[in-house]
Write a structure and sequence with these properties.
By secondary structure, the chain is an alpha+beta fold. The protein contains 6 helices and 18 strands. Strand 14, helix 6 and strand 15 form a beta-alpha-beta unit. The protein is globular, with a radius of gyration of 20 Å. It starts with 15 loop residues before the first helix and ends in a 6-residue tail after the last strand. Pfam families: PrpF (PF04303). Its EC number is 5.3.2.8. This is 4-oxalomesaconate tautomerase.
Length: 371
């Protein structure tokens, strides 16, 4: 189906508020979102975004009239389509939907919802499942990166039940292995080309290992790094200072004016307390993450492996690929290796993670009527 000129209506006279749209609600990693086939949404971005806001119930701090869960981690959308790129199965576009604002952003991707893309592609018939295990090659449209998701399939169906636990999610589910990268040379990890920059009198490290992040020493803000997300969010002076640093970091990272963007993410780092490599508190950017995002963890893990960066001296960096990143909800095991390439600088030579996902419902969603 394709969009008509009117906001949200699609071909054949279908009006989503009346007829509904095919939609699957899935938990991917420690996030939750609405998954759509691209053909079931308007092709024109402004019309698509207007419809997505109606689906999620934004703008409203409770999102009471839509699917959103009143938090950035549950106000997300994944749009999936067959890929025309050789060697790639599906394309994945991520949309971050504002909760109390009428804003839809494609400036970043989401590694948590990425965990559900492979299973969704099988559920919708875009990929033929193999007996035992299925691998899906995914192009992340927001960033241009590629990933391979591998997960259990049996009798032509995705297996969601399993024994894999991830911190931040109750219970267990089937493991989904996600390896980032593929053809082509990896991009430099340090967008500014420096291990340390100074922004507004504060030492920072700018890293992009799949998600743009700014690494900061919690002690430079008079913090231990063990503060709760609620306490950090309530500190107006802290949040204002972090936002000022974030806005200045955007151009240095090649992101331009980030006033209306949700990147870069801001990380307060401190020495590990629970046997991990580093302790983190992540501003995403205005709320504090109760755990950590997949690609955020990959960027942090890569950053602390680079000598002289903010965080390197604080960290207990292990041998091998595994980097256990502590967060408010537990520990995330990022699998990252870094090498210094002549003429390029530090790059991630290997980046992978283990996630889970679960299908919550599959049916039709009825967006709020147009105003």
């Amino acid at each position: 189906m394709t969009a008509t000129a009117r906001g949200g209506a699609v071909a054949g006279g279908v009006e989503p508020a009346t007829d509904g749209l095919p939609c699957m609600l899935m938990r991917g990693g420690t996030s939750k979102g609405a998954y759509f086939l691209a053909d079931d949404l308007p092709a024109e971005p402004a019309e698509r975004d207007a419809l997505v806001l109606r689906v999620m119930g934004s703008p409203d701090e409770r999102q009471i009239d839509g699917l959103g869960g009143a938090h950035p981690l549950t106000s997300k959308v994944a749009i999936v389509s067959p890929s025309k790129t050789p060697g790639i199965d599906v394309d994945y576009l991520f949309l971050q939907v504002g909760v109390d604002t009428a804003r839809v952003s494609d400036a970043q991707t989401c590694g948590n919802l990425l965990a559900g893309v492979g299973p969704f592609a099988v559920e919708r018939g875009l990929v033929r499942p193999q007996e035992g295990r299925t691998a899906v090659r995914i192009r992340l449209l927001n960033t241009g990166d590629t990933a391979t998701a591998s997960f259990a399939t049996r009798d032509g169906r995705v297996v969601y039940d399993g024994d894999q636990a991830i911190d931040g999610v109750p219970g267990t589910a089937a493991p989904i292995e996600i390896e980032m990268g593929g053809a082509g040379d990896p991009a430099p990890l340090l967008p500014s080309g420096r291990a340390v920059d100074e922004i507004l009198g504060t030492r920072v490290t700018l890293v992009n290992g799949g998600m743009p992040v700014v690494l900061l020493d919690a002690a430079d803000f008079g913090l231990s790094g063990a503060e709760s997300p609620e306490a950090l969010e309530a500190d107006g002076a802290l949040t204002a200072r972090l936002e000022a640093i974030r806005l200045a970091a955007g151009p240095l990272m090649g992101l331009g004016d980030v006033t209306e963007q949700t990147v870069p993410k801001m990380f307060l780092l401190s020495p590990p307390r629970a046997g991990g490599a580093i302790a983190t508190r992540a501003f995403i950017p205005h709320r504090v993450h109760p755990s950590i995002g997949v690609l955020m963890a990959a960027s942090v893990a890569a950053g602390i492996r680079i000598p002289d960066t903010v965080g390197h001296a604080l960290a207990e960096v292990p041998e091998g690929a595994r980097v256990p990143v502590e967060h408010p909800g537990g520990v995330f095991d990022a699998l990252v290796l870094v090498e210094d390439r002549p003429g390029v600088g530090p790059v991630a030579s290997y980046s992978a993670n283990l996630r889970t996902a679960r299908k919550i419902f599959d049916g039709r969603v009825f967006p709020r009527p147009r105003p």
